[in-house]
Amino acid sequence: MKNWRTIALLCALCGLSACGYNRFQSLDEEIKATWAEVLNQY
């Protein structure tokens, strides 16, 4: 029974980490686009 809890916890952590990674990537692209606009205006 304890093994099932461990497996479920690991699966949940893996699932949540993928969502966080995608969010970081989208924020990174947004920052790069905004900085490109700053450089363009400069």
Summed up, the domain count is 1
Low-confidence stretches: none
In DSSP terms (H or I, runs of 4 or more residues), the helix count works out at: 1
**Count of DSSP E strands?**
0
Could you report the average pLDDT, rounded to the nearest whole number?
Answer: 83
Q: What portion of the residues fall into strands of 2 or more residues?
A: under 5%
Percent in helix: over 70%
Outline = rod-shaped
* Biggest sheet character: none
Content-based structural category: mainly alpha
Order of helices and strands: H
Q: Specify Rg, calculated over alpha carbons.
A: 18 Å
Distance between the termini: 62 Å
Description:
By secondary structure, the protein is mainly alpha-helical. It contains 1 helix and no strands. The protein has one domain. The longest helix is centred in the middle third of the chain and has 40 residues.
Provide a brief overview of the structure.
The chain has one helix spanning 2-41.
Secondary structure blueprint with pairings:
Layout: H1 2-41
